[in-house]
Amino acid sequence: MGRGNITIEDVAREAGVSRQTVSRVINRSPNVSGSARSRVEQVIETLGYVPNAAARRMGGARSYLLLAAIEGGTAGELAGRLPLDRMLLEGLAACSGQGYHLMFKQISQERDLASALTSLTPDGIVLLPPLDERAEFHHMLERRGLAAACLAERHEHGRVLPGLDEAGFGEAATAKLIEHGHRQVGFIAGDGDIVRSRRRIEGYRRALAEAGSRAHRHFVSEEPRDLAGAIDLARGWLAPTIRPTAIIAGTEAVALGVLQVAHELGLAVPRDLSLLALEDTSGLARSHPPISTLHQPLGALFAGACMRLIEAGEGGGAIRPQGTLTPAIASAAHVFMPRATIARAPRAV
């Protein structure tokens, strides 16, 4: 008998127990006698049996599969929304260390989610932004009794909601520059997610207002921009005599575009212009000068969400739903990398 053809029935027959007993042993259920457990484990080792997902799910047991739901789109669109490479690596490390598998699945509509849950039968699901804000998805998961996790939570109008606090992120970034005396702060979102951009700009305006200043209407841009678009906009902002003393760049492309224009115009960074990017990439670390960043550690947040789901299932059996689980690392919501592009605001511009 080839090892690839060995089934749970073969193990049960060889060990002289029921299929259900084999399933309980596989899933480390306490409801198995010591002698039966020893026989089953010995047969599994002798035959080289590898439990499949279906066997592990018997009797409501765990499938040892977590599903990460991401919004549908092209590869370029997905890469522009989330650092999927970092999230994949950190999520896989967290899951594999606990004996779990991890699968990413594009989800756009309720029927996509329903199909994935039926065909894959995951133990739990991580709803990645912006799917974490889709109420219909949360309702479906609640109806099915499936545990869900999101990366973080935010407070809005007196309610605690799933989702990253993008307004708070924009406010924190602006506050970093205000600490250095900047009041003429520009904000170039450059992000393909217009809702996220508007929330960040909302926080940016709030921080300036609290500092007794306000956003200059010509120094705010929420539109998506590639490198060329960022360069065109930065030339319009930095060439005149009245210009920002600092710029917040929502993406790597925007930050590099602003830096290029500053060099072209003879503006020294950070002496004449401070620059803060809202994502952290190797390109920003290698630029000249290296660009300071305030970023959301989405890889760590994702790994934390996976671990919360896994921990919810400890003790055997399926992961029990506990509402939407959020990782307990709110203190790490923003990570500041100072590098070399932030300085005190110049006395006069």
Automatic annotation (TrEMBL):
Limits of the HTH lacI-type domain: 6-60
Protein name: HTH lacI-type domain-containing protein
Keywords attached to this entry: DNA-binding, Transcription, Transcription regulation
Pfam family, one: LacI
Molecular function GO labels: DNA-binding transcription factor activity; transcription cis-regulatory region binding
InterPro entries per the UniProt record, alphabetical: HTH_LacI, LacI/GalR-like_sensor, Lambda_DNA-bd_dom_sf, Peripla_BP_I
